[in-house]
Write a structure and sequence with these properties.
about 190 residues, Tetracycline Repressor, domain 2, mainly alpha
Length: about 190
């Protein structure tokens, strides 16, 4: 792909991610939301034809956004783990995970369709998140901050459970408290 074409593709994915983040706020306020490809193109400062040349379907664009944001989230883990005490770093990363999940709420039916088609798999997502949690736990165990008997997969399952279990009216605030409780539960006694 030519450099300018790659740059435009990246602009579209970034604009779609920003649009989804804005829509997630609207969704939290009870508004019905759906990603507008015209708004994404305008936000990316490209024509609609350019958007469709790179992403022939809404699902293709949403899949690219999902994969890019998951990659960014997971790639941030080692730097965060090295920059602060393990408990603080893990909680910071978990809040970023919550932002990631929040932005996916605006995908709604489109995300469910991607999962149903196999374009996005829970297995792959869970494996990548599990690998991202491992550096925090390793650093925490080495520093005597975290218990050594909790595998990363259990932490990821608990994170997902916190998101699912939170009451809709206070989803974000309650999930943040549950994630803090999870990190507290990892503390070495």
């Amino acid at each position: 792909m030519r450099v300018d074409a790659e740059r435009k593709r990246e602009q579209v994915v970034a604009a779609a991610g920003d649009e989804l983040a804005d829509l997630a706020v609207a969704a939290r306020n009870g508004e019905a939301v759906r990603l507008s490809l015209d708004r994404v193109a305008a936000r990316a400062r490209v024509g609609v034809a350019t958007l469709y040349r790179h992403f022939p379907t809404r699902e293709a664009l949403l899949e690219a956004v999902y994969r890019q944001e998951l990659t960014r989230l997971c790639e941030a883990a080692p730097k965060l783990a090295a920059a602060a005490p393990a408990d603080e770093a893990l909680l910071t990363w978990m809040y970023r995970y919550l932002d990631f999940v929040d932005s996916k709420r605006a995908m709604g039916a489109d995300l469910r369709a991607m999962v149903a088609s196999g374009a996005v798999t829970q297995t792959d997502t869970r494996a990548r998140l599990t690998a991202a949690v491992a550096p925090f736990l390793d650093a925490g165990v080495a520093a005597g901050i975290f218990r050594s008997d909790v595998p990363p997969g259990d932490v990821v399952a608990a994170m997902a459970g916190a998101v699912i279990a939170a009451e809709p009216e206070q989803q974000r605030e309650q999930t943040r408290r549950l994630l803090k409780l999870l990190v507290d539960g990892l503390q070495a006694r």
